[in-house]
Amino acid sequence: MGDRWELGAAAGGSLLLCAALLAAGCALGLRLGRGRGAADRWALVWLCYDALVHFVLEGPFVYLSLVGNVANSDGLIASLWKEYGKADARWLYFDPTIVSVEILTVALDGSLALFLIYAIVKEKPYRDRVAWGE
């Protein structure tokens, strides 16, 4: 019962990076959403944050996994994935299933987020059909 919970430097850096991406996504989404309704502004906030996460966090994971592995890599992004790897070692070493899913996530979801941002900002008539599958 006397054990204290401490946040390690790597975990703290990971949380700080995620918070910075959230702040950047909010700032960018609100800036792009000026003069639009609340629903469009918050959709832009979410889509900007989503795109940042896919390209800034998951993209480097794919790269690190394809050129080596996360366990032997250095840097802030590698430390974030090493923290994640403490719970599931498949994220530390090349696992074809995990890397395949992440490649699809970065390429498709990240690109779709950018496409939807463009559609909302340019007020394209197809934006709702793409976003909601109507």
Number of domains: 1
**Helix-strand string:** HHHHH
- Helical segment tally? 5
Ranges where pLDDT stays below 50 over 5 or more residues in a row are none
- For the residues shown, what is the average pLDDT? 88
Number of strands: 0
Helicity range: over 70%
The gyration radius over C-alpha positions equals 18 Å
Biggest sheet details: none
Q: Kindly, what is the distance between the CA atoms of the first and last residues, rounded to a whole number of angstroms?
A: 54 Å
Shape: globular
Tell me the β content: under 5%
> Which class of secondary structure composition applies to the elements?
mainly alpha
Question: Which key features would you list for this structure?
Answer:
72% helix; 134 residues; mainly alpha
Question: In a few lines, what is going on in this structure?
Answer:
The chain is an all-alpha fold and 134 residues long.
Describe, in plain words, how this protein is organized in 3D.
- This protein has 134 residues and is mainly α.
- The protein contains five helices and no strands.
- The chain has one domain (1-122).
- It has helices spanning 9-32, 38-67, 76-85, 96-121, 127-132.
- The radius of gyration is 18 Å and the shape is globular.
- The mean pLDDT is 88.
